[in-house]
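Worked Example 4.2. Consider the chain below.
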Amino acid sequence: MKNFVAPLLIFLLLILSRYMSDIPNFTPTISFILFSSYFINNKYTSMLTVLASQIIADIYIGTYSYVFFVYLSYVIIVLIGEFYLKELKFKSVIISSFLAASIFFIVSNFGFWFTESLYSHDLNGLITCYVAAIPFFDDSLISASLYSLTIYIIYKFYKNLFPEANIVTK
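Applying the procedure from the previous section yields the following structure tokens:
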């Protein structure tokens, strides 16, 4: 039963995170995805938890043409967490947050450019798409860093209060 607590909690938090802000791309979603691989022992269970939660959230929010690319970025972010958050350290949280926000920016905006007709489908159109998305990257980078550091601090505080508690079994 204990093995289902972390995936279920992260699943619910991920769904809720999509509704937590009126500022575009300023949500804890990237941070929850990043930390999912730390709190869930199996990377495939982590990926499934992330993807299932986002599919359910998108059913209510609405779908979009580049959803495949957004989900692909989420899977890559799980793998970043798997690699960089093996040991939960301040430096690894900062680096992985930056990488996660960057991967989301690169992959999702490529998907937008690739599937939509707003920009020409050549190098100039791709560059224009990325430049137009820079304000959203700022919000993603700031939110990923703030929320990831918040999760890190809360977890460390909890571990100091309850050292015998074993949330993560790596």
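The mean pLDDT is 90. The chain has one domain: 2-161. Compare this with Example 4.1 before moving on.
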